[in-house]
UniProtKB/TrEMBL annotation:
Coiled coil: none annotated. This is ABC transporter substrate-binding protein. Keywords: Periplasm, Signal, Transport. Residues 1-30 form the signal peptide. Belongs to the bacterial solute-binding protein 1 family. One of its GO terms (cellular component) is outer membrane-bounded periplasmic space. One of its GO terms (biological process) is thiamine transport. The keyword Ligase does not apply. PANTHER family: THIAMINE-BINDING PERIPLASMIC PROTEIN, THIAMINE-BINDING PERIPLASMIC PROTEIN-RELATED. It is found in: Periplasm. It comes from Bordetella flabilis. SUPFAM superfamilies: Periplasmic binding protein-like II. Its main location: periplasm. The lineage of its organism: Bacteria, Pseudomonadati, Pseudomonadota, Betaproteobacteria, Burkholderiales.
Length: 352
């Protein structure tokens, strides 16, 4: 995938004609020399450098300086725009967690992108101020050595401690966890919203004493299943895949997964907005998105990328057709309206 390449003279065509639609032409953009892009660091930086940063530099002449951002970027993003102290020009943001808040506050630069600019783009992966480029999913995973015959295939199975005894773990966060509790109680994945919060907590009451660990970070969740401390848990598919790649006997269950879309947003008012928007548009290209999947077990949002991804690798990604059809996106609007109250209740329930 790293060998995917587009000639400089084809750059405008490769990004859907985006440079031509921007206020500043390519030579002027290149004269600005650089943009600063923030991402979660680690494997993200490696994958994005190969798929996005280096190719954009080569085709545009604009240097991309990458920095690692805080795990929860909204506060930093808000302060940066309000003080006009732009320490970066583009950052990764999550649709369900970040975009509703930042859009409501008017802190994002409009991108001027349209769905027709990117044939194959998932409908949810574009707002007026944000372009989603990768998808991860919160899934059920289990140890095949601990459950060699019968194994869990749903959240109802996860909740069934008689049929599937053994230590298990859930995330210490209401997002995804409440949805899982409702599905365990019989709510269909396509009928989750608006969430019946009281019913979700009644369902959580049933499993509470059987949860060995309430995990708080991705590395912790991976270690729990990789070491065998738990037999099954809820975790992000990339972490589960990393455990599998490390030869742990782990299997991912895509059924009733809850996927999240990550993508690029530009802080409103950055003096390098046009360069930043050119970069964002570049990242919507199917071939470019195909390139990061060799390093990250996350799915592209431009589904045409699968034309350039090996079939064996594609089967491990959330947006592959056979995986995506079993999952859904948590409702961003519901979580925007209810996150604070539900989080306070969840935290009180955890320690109560």
């Amino acid at each position: 995938m790293s060998g995917i390449h587009v000639k400089r003279r084809s750059f405008v065509k490769a990004v859907g004609g985006g440079i031509a639609s921007l206020a500043m032409p390519l030579p002027a953009l290149a004269a600005s020399r650089q943009i600063v892009v923030s991402d979660p660091g680690g494997p993200y930086t490696t994958a994005y450098r190969k798929a996005f940063y280096d190719p954009f530099e080569k085709e545009s002449g604009i240097k991309v300086v990458s920095v690692a951002r805080e795990s929860q970027p909204v506060a930093q993003f808000t302060a940066m725009v309000q003080t006009r102290n732009y320490i970066w020009d583009v950052t990764t943001l999550t649709l369900s967690a970040d975009i509703p808040i930042l859009e409501q506050r008017g802190l994002l630069e409009p991108l001027g992108l349209k769905h027709e600019d990117f044939p194959g783009l998932m409908p949810e992966a574009l707002t007026p101020n944000w372009l989603g480029v990768d998808v991860y999913s919160t899934v059920l995973a289990y140890r095949t050595d601990k459950l060699p015959k019968e194994h869990p295939e749903s959240w109802a199975d996860f909740w069934d401690v008689k049929r599937f005894p053994g230590p298990r773990s859930l995330r210490r966060n209401p997002l995804d966890t409440l949805e899982q509790a409702l599905m365990a109680d019989g709510v269909s994945i396509d009928q989750l919203y608006p969430l019946d919060v009281d019913r979700a907590f009644r369902s959580l009451d049933k499993i509470r004493k059987h949860i060995s660990v309430w995990w708080t970070g991705g590395a912790q969740s991976m270690q729990l299943i990789q070491s065998g401390e738990v037999d099954m848990l809820s975790l992000w598919n990339g972490r589960a895949q990393a455990a599998i790649d490390g030869k742990a006997p782990v299997r991912i269950v895509w059924n009733q997964g809850l996927y999240s879309i990550e993508g690029w947003g530009v802080p409103k008012g950055t003096p390098r907005a046009e360069e930043a928007k050119a970069f964002v548009r570049f990242c919507g290209d199917a071939r470019r998105q195909a390139a990061f999947t060799a390093d990250l077990a996350y799915g592209p949002t431009n589904l045409r990328a699968y034309e350039y991804i090996d079939a064996a690798r594609a089967a491990l990604l959330p947006t592959a057709k056979e995986n995506l059809k079993h999952m859904r996106l948590p409702d961003p609007k519901w979580w925007q309206d209810n996150r604070q109250a539900v989080t306070e209740r969840f935290n009180a329930w955890i320690i109560g």
